[in-house]
Amino acid sequence: MDNAAIVGVAQTKYERRKKDQILADLVFDVTRAALDDAGLAIGDIDSVVTVSNDFFDGRTISGMAVGDAAGGEDKNISTVSGDGAFGAFYGLMRVLSGYKATIVVAHYKGSEGSVPITTNGMFDPIFHRHLGIDAISAAALQADAYMARFGIREEDVAQVSVKNHGNAKNNPYAQLPMDITVADVMKSRKIAEPLKLLDCCPISDGAAAIIIANEEIAARTKKKPVWVKGVAHCCEEYFLGDRRLSDPVALQDAARRAYAMAGITDPMAEIDVAEVLEPFSYMEPLWLEGLGFCKPGEGAHLIEKGITTMGGRLPVNPSGGALSANPILVAGLARLIEATLQVRGEAGDRQVKNAATALAHGFNGPCGQSHCVWIMGGKK
Amino acid sequence: MGRRVAIVGVGQTYHKSHRPDVTSREMIREAVTAALADAELTIRDIDAIVIGNMDHFESINYVDTYSVEGSGGVMKPIMKVSTGGTTGATVAIAAYYHVASGLFDRVLAIGFEKNSESDTTGAIITCSDAIWDRFSYSGAIPSLATEATAYMEKYGATQEDAAIIGERDRNNALNNPFAHLRRPLTVADIMASPMLAYPIKLGDICPRSDGACACVLAADGVAQKIARKPAWFKAAAVRHTYTWFGDSTDYNKGLVSMQRASKDAYQQAGITKPAEEIDVAELYLPYTWAGLKWIEDIGFCGPGEGVRFVRDGNTHMGGKIPVNPSGGVISTNCIGATAMLRVAEAAIQVMGRGGKRQVPDVKNALATGFGGCFWSDVVILSTERP
Amino acid sequence: MAHQVESERLVSVFAYPMPYEWSIGLYGSKFFQEIKQNRRFVGIRCNGCGKVYVPPRRVCGPCFQELAELVALSDTGVITAFSVVNYPFIDPNTGARRPIPYTYGYIKLDGADNIFSHIINETDLSKIKVGMKVRAIFKDTAEMQGNIQDIKYFDIVA
Fold first, then answer.
1. Could you give the ipTM of this predicted complex?
2. Distance (Å, rounded) from C-alpha C126 to C-alpha C124?
3. B353 located within any domain
4. Which CATH number do you get for residue B10?
């Protein structure tokens, strides 16, 4: 793979409802902010990838709403319908194919549609949708399967929520910085057994943008380029009943290939910080298992041992993660942005010391059916 | 620069107005199976998949994850790209970058639609801005009708001139065993068909179809081992120029996105005289007037010369640059697959696998996608490795 | 079961509403307030290319520039294109069939450089032509809701 780097990043503050702005406003703001961050002009950008979803936006050809605002005028522009981590992957492929600089911009307003109805749309229209299943109830099934298989207690995963909301206090973009305890999580309202309110992400509005560039552009940007060391994605089976929900096989495969590309053989030793997409607290340990940071069933021990807390061997979600703001689709791009800021050393009060190699992750589909894993590094 | 890339296999379903016998994912599987058979590969040979459609036609969110059983995407990288009518071309182009990037050697591109599963016009209306346009918008036909009216006023083209395009494409469809509408349609038939929105009559406009299309793309060095005559990408250009409906309506300028995308494509391919250097074109012509007007925007002839160019037989089979040997969109229109069918049919022509619809001695074939807010994609395929 | 399976082919019907609540944004809101207060349109000028856009928005695509200069327009314009819609379809706004025929029109509002689309109150092809002047007919102020239907339609005036 040729060298390519993330040279500019920007995100809005994530909020429950950005009533004052239309989607194009959000996209325009982060597009210009990412250009400013890189010290580039729109004329330096020769390719644009927008990230959106027709269900969430309530609009067919949802990408049409933001073409102008993303700087797509007279440029090669396209739209990835899925998580921003995948949109970024398409942006990278364009750069590796000969474009100089691709801007990737994602938007989402959870406040404008009905999340139960739009995520119900992910499920099979013949066999499942009429049952009313949505992202939350499916996650509850996965949580139950995972926790029952390995004897994980609700208190164990509640620690993830405590940690991530606490980390969010150091992230000015996060929606829900909170000082909470395991007891607070445990006594929060039951949403879908075993998930309680504080085990679940909020509904969020927001947008984010990154600029991926070739070496020539990266040599003249304002900020230190953060290089793509490895990236891969993989999808598993569709019907929940066809999957072993406690065994994230697609994530394992994506991680294996991303690590191979980055030359990583011992992820726990070689990765300094990880940003994983965890809209539900149990997902963080499950994904850490899938990513090979520990054996199956041991994910919850990592936080117990202090490994994934700030100051631990592998801080996970210093940004506060999706539990602290979950603009769907934007969320994976936000993970990649946090990884970039960490490697740059620009993460402020949430900076992980000597973060040279960072992992970012996003997924599509119910219960993490399709995963994308990025390894970013400070050196070419 | 990226690697060279070729299409090495294509597959499509037969097309019908209604396929109650299959679900979307089963229909996708038919196209994938056909494409793999065409390339003499199995799904195990495929490194990654790109898929696209328009969500609200089937009302399925995340079709990339929904369709893995049909696409073959289980335990493979899969990504969804969706841009409206242009989707099929933008998916093929995304697959092209998958391979050109050096990250994947063999990639499957899939476009599909089951238009029978919703009210097509109702679903298209949801592409208009919810605040400004959705209240008055009535789907693609009136925008096209206004374009047609402007063209007729400017150049004196007639409804009969446009009907020639319908007659031509529907005649060509008789040679395509996969086409949806395989009955001849004459200029007189079109003129006598019911008026939908002046000057567009039923015979001027594309049908709505159920169907799917898939292409296998491979990298330089791999492609030659798979296909005897790979269809090499010489150009892939995209211009999705407008965001607002009201900005796209200066018809005196012509189809700006097509002008820009084709200029970019010709530059990539080193083509200076399109009408001389391109041997066959599969154009996304959703209605008959496009066959007169857009061939001007794409540079096959000068502004206002479309009628003469077509009436002289240049675009008919046996002419200088046959357009739509497959029968085109006027004969088959499964929207998310429609633009990919153009790319696939162009590949078929380059690979010499067109059977009764084959144009002799094709070197360069051009395909277009159209959609969104008067957007255009252009792909040029060639027997010649660039 | 036998090798050859045959069955009546069934369909799964999904006809539930999908509600949304879309933001209109600053300039869009100004547009509707101007209609309510002054019964006229407002556009926005780009200082880069000089174009006046309606409805007003924040960015000029070709210039990639922030817009801020609102321009008052009148309530009149010219038909640049129209279409009498004769085919039946389900209106996603209501879930029911939209009444036909009706006339969908592109209107160049006086003082604007792009096109505004709305309904023209004339379905007789012999009475409507490109180039005709039209005037917006607004709802009574008390009935206005701050949306596109505050404009009832456009009437041909010449």
1. 0.98
2. 5
3. yes
4. 3.40.47.10
**Subunits close to B (at least 3 CB pairs below 8 A):** A, C
Give the pLDDT confidence score for residue C30 in this predicted structure: 96
Q: What is the pLDDT of residue C2?
A: 61
Tell me whether strands A76-80 and A4-11 are parallel, antiparallel or unpaired: unpaired
Query: Does B153 contact C at CB distance below 8 Å?
Result: yes
B82/A54 touch (CB, cutoff 8 Å), yes or no: yes
| Rg, Å, chain C Cα set | 21
Which residue of chain A comes nearest to B122, CA vs CA? A60
Q: Residue B25's closest chain A neighbor by CA? A: A124
Closest residue in A to C61 (Cα–Cα): A68
What's the one-letter identity of residue A379?
K
Encode pLDDT of B280-301 as tens digits: 999 999 999 999 999 999 999 9
In contact, B91 and A265? CB cutoff 8 Å: no
C116, closest residue in chain B (CA to CA):
B246
Which of these, B357, B218, B333, B350, lies nearest to B278 by C-alpha position? B350
More reliable by pLDDT, B119 or B315: B315
pLDDT value at residue A35: 98
DSSP secondary structure letter of residue B357? G
Q: What are phi and psi of B370, to 5 degrees?
A: -140, 145
Residue C1 has pLDDT above 60, yes or no: no
User: CB distance C61–A67 less than 8 Å?
Assistant: yes
C9 touching B (Cβ < 8 Å): yes
Any idea what the Cα angle at residue A328 is, between residues C12 and A7, rounded to 5°?
140
Query: What is the mean predicted confidence (pLDDT) over B142-158?
Result: 88
Least confident range from A206-210, B253-257, B324-328: namely B253-257
C-beta atoms of C23 and A20 within 8 A = yes
Among candidate residues B226, B261, B292, the one where a domain is terminated: B226
Residue C93 is predicted with a pLDDT of: 82
- Amino acid identity of A282? Y
pLDDT at B120: 85
Contact status, residue C96 vs residue C72, Cβ threshold 8 Å:
no
- Show which subunits contact C, needing at least 3 CB pairs below 8 angstroms: A, B
8 A C-beta contact, residue B89 and residue B342: yes
What is the nearest CA distance from B115 to chain C, expressed in angstroms? 14
Show the domains of chain A with their CATH numbers. Answer: 4-114+204-218 (3.40.47.10)
